[in-house]
């Protein structure tokens, strides 16, 4: 294990150096050795991708190597930062070298020969570097497209052409990542959450959930590395990610329109339960303003009465099973609160009155 860890650490340093001016001293032989090293580590990824213990050990070494207090002096240009990066280590190295103007002419010429060998040139890899770079370019284009703010004031956001296109791109990227470990898909969604405009990204997720039919949980033995995803699995990955990240789930429910969330709730009972729990929590933060005769939030970030009422009303205008579930929950909360019938004493009573008046 230790020789493998050392190999990984040394290549990670090479990858970091590839973005610096030090590559001006590289010749074609250096580039060749670096690419061979990268392909060896890609083989390591394929061999040990399913071995949790080995993968964890490699990840730990990489994290310790590039922590801020590290002594390599290359913190601004990190090398490998996670095990998943080994899958495309040769692509990462090639991209960094192509972008580095300090790379000498001979080394650059050799690299271009490797990327574009021409017709009839035999290659040892099933997927060429050129193909991998093209795939990476498509992925980056998809991320760029997802950055666009597709939200417009539309009564049916799920029918907006731009939003549907962004949702399809998201599902397509999830399908590509789906051939790797489940944690890779979660890491991919987490990276989008950090990089993209969050309000729009949350709406794209909601629309994506409506584009595919929900699937029943799949047996664990079928969740194997390399198994292709089928239609509908992207929605399951999105639901799983939302449920695993409470902060994201709360933002998902707070930032998406009531009607869109109702459509999602109809199809995904697991999300419905969390949504109802959040609505209940938001309602408990409101206090009755007697002089003005309205429920108000104690803090500025609290949900307003009009929004809370609109969300409950939207849920109760949906299909009968969901409507009955919501009304049953409100009746139970009303009973716990004293089972008052007069308005202004219990927010759950007032919500039930508002729902009945709008029916």
From TrEMBL:
Kindly state which keywords UniProt assigns to this record, in alphabetical order.
DNA damage, DNA repair, Nucleus
- List GO terms (cellular component aspect): chromatin; Fanconi anaemia nuclear complex; nucleoplasm
Q: Where in the cell is it found?
A: Nucleus
* Zinc-finger is among the record's keywords: no
Location (main, coarse)? nucleus
Superkingdom, taxonomy of origin: Eukaryota
What's a Pfam family this protein contains?
FANCF
User: What GO biological process terms are annotated to this protein in UniProt?
Assistant: interstrand cross-link repair
Function description: DNA repair protein that may operate in a postreplication repair or a cell cycle checkpoint function. May be implicated in interstrand DNA cross-link repair and in the maintenance of normal chromosome stability.
Q: What is this protein called?
A: Fanconi anemia group F protein
Native source species: Oryctolagus cuniculus
């Amino acid at each position: 294990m230790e020789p493998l860890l050392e190999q990984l650490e040394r290549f990670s340093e090479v990858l970091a150096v590839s973005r610096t001016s030090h590559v001006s001293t590289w010749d074609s032989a250096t580039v060749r050795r670096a690419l061979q090293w990268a392909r060896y580590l890609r083989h390591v990824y394929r061999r040990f991708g399913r071995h949790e213990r080995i993968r964890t050990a490699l990840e730990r070494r990489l994290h310790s190597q590039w922590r801020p207090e590290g002594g390599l002096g290359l913190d601004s240009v990190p090398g490998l930062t996670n095990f998943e990066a080994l899958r495309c280590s040769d692509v990462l190295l090639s991209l960094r070298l192509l972008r580095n103007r300090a790379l000498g002419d001979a080394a650059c010429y050799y690299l271009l020969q490797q990327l574009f060998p021409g017709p009839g040139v035999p290659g040892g890899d099933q997927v060429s570097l050129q193909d991998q770079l093209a795939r990476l370019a498509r992925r980056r284009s998809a991320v760029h497209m997802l950055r666009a703010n597709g939200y417009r004031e539309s009564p049916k956001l799920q029918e907006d052409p731009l939003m549907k296109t962004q949702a399809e791109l998201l599902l397509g990227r999830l399908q590509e990542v789906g051939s790797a470990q489940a944690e890779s898909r979660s890491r991919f969604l987490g990276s989008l959450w950090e990089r993209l405009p969050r309000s729009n990204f949350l709406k794209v997720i909601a629309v994506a959930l409506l584009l595919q039919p929900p699937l029943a949980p799949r047996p664990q033995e079928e969740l194997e590395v390399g198994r292709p995803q089928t239609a509908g699995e992207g929605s399951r990955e999105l639901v799983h990610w939302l449920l695993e990240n409470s902060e994201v789930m709360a933002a998902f429910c707070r930032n998406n329109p009531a009607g869109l969330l109702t459509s999602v709730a109809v199809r995904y009972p697991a999300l419905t339960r969390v949504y109802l729990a959040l609505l209940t929590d938001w309602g408990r933060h409101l206090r009755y303003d007697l002089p003005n005769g309205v429920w108000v939030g104690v803090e500025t970030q609290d949900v307003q009465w009009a929004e809370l009422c609109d969300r409950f009303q939207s849920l109760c205008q949906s299909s009968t099973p969901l409507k009955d579930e919501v009304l049953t929950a409100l009746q139970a909360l009303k009973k716990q609160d004293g089972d008052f019938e007069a308005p202004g004493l219990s927010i759950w009573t007032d919500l039930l009155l508002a729902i009945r008046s709008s029916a």
